[in-house]
Specification:
- The protein has 307 residues and is mostly helical.
- The protein has one domain (3-283).
- It has 14 helices and no strands.
- The protein has helices spanning 3-21, 27-33, 37-45, 51-82, 84-106, 114-128, 145-158, 160-163, 169-176, 179-187, 193-224, 226-243, 248-251, 257-303.
- Helix 1 packs antiparallel against helix 2, helix 3 crosses helix 4 and helix 5 (84-106) runs parallel beside helix 14 (257-303).
- It is globular.
């Protein structure tokens, strides 16, 4: 890989990293938009077969993702600290804006049986919010033993942000109540170094496990059950919109007039931005398909020329 491609892929990784940190934005969708999703998944699945080549391809994306997350961490942390309601409304807008394209794609080959694939994850996401003590997460030095294992599970779920287009792994963390505590752990990294590193290491371990296992799982399901898988993703995303308003974080928000006005504006901005990204991605994919068809037609015409 030359230096130009390294910088290009690092920038793409930064965009994906920023998307992974924002609940409601899918890193996988942006990877598809930038034309690197399939190559990343293939590189992940090819690590055991051709480690050096796959690792070198993934490296700039990983570096970029870390830089993107680092750049957005403090703005997002303080936004949730001092303007929680407007920030959550922005997240909801991102989710709502992605729905039209997902429904349009799913409606192409809809079958009544797909309603089950759609309904189950939708109901599950909403029911999660009613689990007792959901959101009461303690990641301090006195946290419960089982929380160490749950952190790995949360990391696994958050890896969905890249692997599954349309799904926001960070939104899952937000619904489960682990999003803010993990941000807080990063914030006290230098004042409580040992325990913070342990918490973050377990979370990252879950991300790594999830990234590789879910990548293979998604490739299998998309190949064997593409329609059912797409409708399950759609059910999850649809259920996430009301679920975000049932979280403890939303309930503890400040609902004064100023925050409400800003929140409505940011929600609309999120809807427009997410819808625009989806429309652009659809347009880009259509152009790519047309170009591939034209190239295939040209090859066939040349093959069929009389000798």
């Amino acid at each position: 890989m030359n230096f130009k491609n390294f910088i290009k892929n690092t920038c793409a990784g930064a965009v994906i990293g920023i998307a992974m940190l924002i609940p409601g934005v899918s890193g996988g969708t942006l990877a598809v938009l930038m034309g690197c999703y399939e190559k990343i998944i293939d590189a992940v699945n090819g690590l055991l077969k051709d480690f050096i080549k796959s690792f070198l391809y993934l490296l700039p994306f990983a570096v970029g993702a870390v830089l993107g997350i680092a750049a957005l961490y403090f703005p997002l942390y303080y936004a949730l600290l001092y303007a929680k309601f407007p920030t959550i409304m922005l997240f909801a807008g991102f989710m709502a804006g992605s729905l039209p394209k997902l429904f349009k794609d799913g409606a192409k080959d809809f079958k009544p049986l797909n309603l089950i694939s759609f309904a189950l994850p939708l109901i599950a996401v909403i029911l999660i919010c009613f689990i007792p003590a959901m959101g009461d997460v303690n990641l301090g030095a006195d946290m419960q033993v089982e929380t160490y294992f749950i952190l790995i599970l949360m990391g696994l779920l958050s890896s969905c942000a890249l692997v599954v287009p349309g799904v926001s792994g960070s939104l899952l963390l937000f619904i489960f109540g682990y999003y803010q505590p993990i941000l807080d752990t990063v914030h006290v990294l230098f004042t409580n170094f040992g325990h913070s590193v342990l918490v973050l290491a377990l979370f990252v371990l879950g991300i790594i496990i999830g990234f590789f296992s879910i990548a293979k799982l998604m490739k299998y399901f998309m190949k064997r059950f593409p329609r059912g898988t797409n409708w399950a993703i759609l059910g999850f995303v649809t259920g996430s919109v009301p679920a975000i308003f049932l979280t403890k974080e939303f309930a503890s928000s400040s609902f004064d007039a100023v925050h409400i006005c800003i929140g409505v504006i940011l929600c609309l901005a999120g809807i427009i931005a997410s819808f625009a990204i989806g429309a652009y991605a659809e347009s880009r994919n259509a152009k790519t398909e047309n170009r591939d068809i034209a190239a295939e037609t040209q090859v066939n015409d040349q093959t069929n020329l009389p000798e």
